[in-house]
Write a structure and sequence with these properties.
OB fold (Dihydrolipoamide Acetyltransferase, E2P); signal; 1 helix; binds copper (II) ion; alpha+beta
Length: 126
């Protein structure tokens, strides 16, 4: 009796873990693909309906209005992904690895939402 119960318990635990494993590995493969194609593929940008640790990267373009060690101010074009109209706003620089931008320069840029606002990721002259 004891052996039979053990066998049943083992079988049940294998049966419930196996599908979970399959799902986890397919999600990982999917995320990997999304990351590989992110710079080019806009369609992968709106996958973030469930909480993940990877922040969504948004794209915009605009004119540099101010530059400091910690922030840049852009007068940017509308950003449909966020339902933003054109506006002038500040982005933090803690995640930015590029060179300083010049006031008056028009750039394409990418950014993420941060705990305190929005952080610039990259910018390239337009
Ligand atoms: Cu804005």
């Amino acid at each position: 009796m004891r052996t039979l119960l053990t066998v049943i318990a083992l079988f049940a635990s294998v049966a419930t873990t196996a599908p979970a494993f399959a799902e986890t590995s397919s999600v990982t493969a999917h995320d990997h693909n999304a990351m590989m194609s992110m710079p080019m593929d806009h369609s992968s940008m709106n996958h973030g309906t469930q909480p993940t640790s990877a922040a969504t990267v948004y794209q915009g373009s605009g004119v540099v209005k101010a530059w400091s060690d910690t922030s840049v101010t852009f007068a940017h074009q509308p950003i449909p992904a966020l339902n933003w109209p054109a506006m002038t706003m500040r982005f933090g620089l803690s995640a930015y690895k590029g060179s300083p931008l010049s006031v008056g320069q028009t750039v394409n840029f990418t950014f993420i939402q941060s705990a305190s606002g929005y952080d610039l990721i990259s910018a390239s002259a337009n």
